[in-house]
Specification:
single chain; about 325 residues; alpha/beta; Rossmann fold; Histone, subunit A; 2 domains; 13 helices; 6 strands; about 55% helix; globular
Amino acid sequence: MRGVALALLGPTASGKSALALRLAERVALEIVSVDSGQVYRGMDIGTAKPSAAERRRVPHHLIDLVEPTESYSAGRFRADAIAAVNDILARGRLPLLVGGTMLYYRALAQGIDELPAADAATRAAIDREAADLGWPALHAELARVDPQSARRLEPNDAQRIQRALEVYRTTGKALSAFHTAPRLPLPFALAGCALVPADRAQLHRRIAERFDRMLALGLVDELRALRRRYALDPALPSMRSVGYRQAWGRLEGAYGEREMRDKALAATRQLAKRQLTWLRAMSFDAVLDPFAADAAERFCDLAQALVAEGRAA
């Protein structure tokens, strides 16, 4: 009988961490982060990393893995997540994958293709073109050379447009052409629960409240300290994270505090929209409104039922 891992996926500010901690009151579990920002050391406030107290209360994995100057891929996440889940299962505890980086979750659940390595020169050239022409223009170029990839990307999804064009320019093949390799199955069963808010306006309010807390905690000062410590560049994947990208512009004097906040909120709402699009395109064992009055109780009951069902399978 294979072990069972549970996943809790949802858009930013939907209360995933709070629900995970509530479940930890009932079940002996350890949390595996599914967050592309929390892998970076020193990026604590802007990624809403769990506090030291929360980490003492419940063990967390796949946090603080790399420096902000490094890259971290979906393929590496899959390998790291499988290793973490296997270790947790070996200790007789429940692995709970929690986060909102849907690409990482899809890589874990469905497998991932072997893609060409990153090419720094090509990425830099694409960034220069984007600065001159804008990402929608590069999205239009991608639509000509790789329409399948372009269809699933928003015109301003800079990181993924860049990667798709990078692959095409360095190999002459569309990124979608690499999505044909056989996928290795997971060594454990995976049950997933998606958080899909019924009230989008409430999600937007939560997004604003959370970003205001980040500002109050010192997000801009955190980035200022990171820039002193590391040779950072706004084109790095870490610095493209929502919140840090806008704080970077603030430190560069491109705009003031209020405009930074407005830009960050708009970008975070767009991120949440993309996350919900991913969620609706994927298959889950359960879907829950995180803002319902009984959300915590329902999630705990659902989680325990899904785990019991998976163990009985």
